[in-house]
Design goal:
single chain, alpha/beta, Aminopeptidase, 2 domains, 8-stranded mixed sheet, two-stranded antiparallel ribbon, 9 helices, 17% strand, binds zinc ion
Length: 389
């Protein structure tokens, strides 16, 4: 090899290293925790999930839990998002609670990033953005990570060939990666795979804190049957019915005679490992789950840019809607913006909390301070989120 060739080879290697460094920046950024405003005067403390399962201490599954304790006996609720870290409206709903809610009777737990590990990576081969940003009135920028549906293999690997999990669900063949899916492994194991231990931590939180109602926020694809469905364990059906009726009554009082597109469904008897089934069966809590419509969750969306995630505008899905191929997940040119999706989560969870005291007066949980649905849609998160240092 002559000197000229050597120089050229070294140059090619150097260029490859620079490209790898630049490409790796995105992956490294996703390891940085999100900054969530924690100066709400109503906030009692920030707990860790490892308080409920010590095996999570020091792991990527040890997520934060924001505790709002009024000190007055009453009902207890757990509102969470981030079971699936790419279902961003549910995460934004929980963050909005953390920053704004006030509790005058009962106790509220909020967990914005239930599967924390899943926030550190995006879905492979989808060219998905890793973050979304909101520019606030003071010019500061809030950044929130958009992760993926499963825990990061860096934190839980390898996936086993076969797993009979704690709910009786068999994970094998094409479903084996679901061992990293928080919503397939409830009620979990004290000492098992990372995600199983996170599930166990949530179960213990629900048991130890006497949680009466839990709300697990999700987003669904346009193809999914249960868009805008509240899925409730059989012990939570009365609560769910009351919440949907009250939400619609509120909308009508404000002049919106169409109300909300909420529907109620009973948790499937064989929904093994899902929160509404497994936490409803194995704890005292009334377990519920809600799905808002996000085209990013589907198979026919365009490239996952920040605009697609925030505005939910997808010409592909408008076309599919026009062809009459969609049921409940129809999309128009107006899209499915994150403020609307998060607003649905907020109304649904707020009314579940309200219905708790209505059906069981000794379990009253009184909350205030949350933006209304109209506030969220009109002002956007730009007008709702607080600046963080
Ligand atoms: Zn989900």
């Amino acid at each position: 090899m002559n000197a000229k060739q050597t120089t050229r080879n070294v140059l090619v290697l150097l260029i490859a290293l620079v490209l790898a460094f630049l490409a790796g920046q995105d992956f490294r950024d996703m390891q940085q925790p999100d900054k969530i405003y924690a100066e709400n005067p109503a906030l009692t403390r920030v707990a860790k999930l490892s308080e409920y399962n010590p095996n999570l201490k020091g792991t990527a599954g040890d997520t934060d839990i924001y505790v709002f304790d009024s000190g007055v006996p009453g009902g207890v609720a757990l509102v969470y998002g981030g079971t699936h870290a790419n279902e961003t409206a549910a995460v934004m709903n929980a963050i909005t609670y953390v920053e704004n809610v006030s509790v005058t009777q009962g106790k509220l737990f909020v967990m914005p990033q239930a599967n924390l590990s899943a926030f550190s990576a995006t879905l492979p081969l989808r060219a998905q953005m890793g973050h979304m940003t909101f520019t606030l009135a003071d010019g500061s920028v809030r950044t929130v990570r958009m992760g993926t549906r499963l825990a990061n293999p860096v934190h839980q690997w390898p996936d086993p060939n076969y797993r009979l999990n704690s709910s009786g669900r068999v994970l094998e063949h094409g479903e084996i990666a679901e061992i990293r899916n928080l919503n397939r492994n409830h009620p979990g194991m004290e000492d098992g795979y990372l995600v199983e231990m996170v599930c166990y931590g949530i179960r213990k939180l629900v048991e130890t804190e006497n949680v009466d109602v839990l709300y697990d926020g999700h987003e669904a694809s346009p193809e999914f049957r249960a868009v805008n469905f509240l899925i409730a364990h059989q012990r939570a059906m009365d609560l769910g019915s009351a919440a949907i009726l009250n939400a619609n009554l509120d909308a009508m009082m404000e002049g919106d005679m169409d109300g909300y597109p909420f529907k109620l469904d009973l948790s499937g008897a064989t929904s093994w490992g899902l929160s509404h089934r497994a936490l409803g069966d194995n704890t005292q809590a009334m377990a519920t789950l809600f799905e808002s419509l996000n085209p990013v969750m589907g198979f026919c969306h365009e490239k996952v840019t920040e605009a697609l995630v925030k505005d939910g505008i997808s010409p592909n899905y408008v076309h599919i809607t026009d062809l009459g191929l969609l049921g409940s997940g129809e999309l128009t040119d107006a899209g499915s913006p994150i403020e609307l999706r998060a607003g649905y989560h907020m109304e649904m969870s707020r009314h579940l909390i309200g219905a708790l005291g209505e059906l069981n007066p000794e379990k009253t949980l009184t909350i205030s301070g949350l933006p209304t649905f109209n506030d969220l849609v009109a002002n956007g998160f730009e007008g709702i989120l607080k600046p963080v240092k």
